[in-house]
Amino acid sequence: MKLVFLGDLVGRSGREVVLNSLEKIKTELKPDFIIANGENAAGGFGITKSVCEELFAEGVDVITTGNHVWDQSGTASYIAQEKRLLRPINYSNPQMPGQGAVSVQLKDGRRFIVMNVMCRLFMHENLECPFRTAENYIKQFSLESSQIAGIFVDLHGEATSEKKAFAIYLDGKVSGVIGTHTHVPTTDAQVLSGGTAYLTDAGMCGDYNSIIGMKPNEPLARFLGSTERKRMQPALGEGTLSGALINIDDKTGLAQSIFPIILGPHLHNQWPAH
Ligand SMILES: [Fe+2]
């Protein structure tokens, strides 16, 4: 099966480039499953019901998030009843609404598992161990089962070392691990020796003429020591699509290959052969 993952949608530029590209993705890449990280999709901070519904209607199967999941009011009540919207599985608060993983039935009857995990280095969140939490969760599934098409992890984190360590820890137990959160795509897409596809960061879907998706003025002022605090605003220029395609072996549930996807005006474009 083919999985397309799209990195953090940032603001309107991110939403528009994804919504405008989904038809091309579906026609040319023919994915069986599409996942997008939407934690910055609404005004650059958080996600709303209407944004989710728009993405679901256009073919996104599951939306993942991260540290900005609660930035919009209404997300807590929405996520409690929408299983296709995930928040990180390893938040320490056992009362937190929503789920960190979902099992979705494919057209052929098999199930595809998506998990959203958050790293701890430099993240300032109250989190359980991402490694052991993820390992414990996937114990209930076997990639070799004919009922399981694959297991995918959106690993939301800052530190490259922690992301790579996580992927090596679960190598051979999940189909793919792709990092999000830094909003910059890395060029290290590889299938690890145990068969897990890995990419340190998918990059963002958004306007790269920015500071990780935001208009430069306010973040730059803060770096320069400004004492004023204005709200950061997402950059509104044309967006670039950024993500990856993973081919998963139907027999083993492990990855056969991973290809970067970059399409848009800012970065060197990469589009998988089809
Ligand atoms: Fe984030």
Class from secondary-structure proportions: alpha/beta
| SSE string, helices as H and strands as E | EHEHEHEEHEHEEEHEE
Number of strands: 11
Number of helices: 6
What separation lies between the terminal Cα atoms? Answer: 14 Å
**Mean pLDDT rating:** 97
Low confidence ranges: none
What is the helical fraction, as a range of percent? 10-25%
Strand percentage lies at 15-25%
Rg value: 17 Å
Query: How would a textbook summarize the main sheet?
Result: 6 strands, mixed
The side-by-side strand order for the widest beta sheet comes to 4-5-6-7-9-8
- Name the overall outline: globular
**Cofactors and ligands:** fe (ii) ion
How do the strands and helices of this protein lay out in sequence?
Blueprint lengths: L1 E5 L4 H19 L3 E5 L11 H9 L4 E3 L10 H7 L19 E5 L5 E8 L11 H9 L9 E9 L3 H10 L6 E5 L9 E2 L5 E3 L17 H7 L17 E8 L6 E9 L11
Please, could you describe this protein's structure?
The chain has 274 residues and is of the alpha/beta class. Helices cover 22% and strands 23% of the residues. It has 6 helices and 11 strands. It has helices at 11-29, 49-57, 75-81, 130-138, 160-169, 217-223; strands at residues 2-6, 33-37, 62-64, 101-105, 111-118, 148-156, 176-180, 190-191, 197-199, 241-248, 255-263. The strands form 2 sheets. It has a 6-stranded mixed beta sheet with strand order 4-5-6-7-9-8, with helices on one face. Strands 3-2-1-10-11 form a 5-stranded mixed beta sheet. Helix 5 (160-169) links the parallel strand 6 and strand 7. The model has no long low-confidence stretch (mean pLDDT 97). Fe (ii) ion binds at residues 39, 66-68, 156, 181. Fe (ii) ion (FE2) binds next to loops.
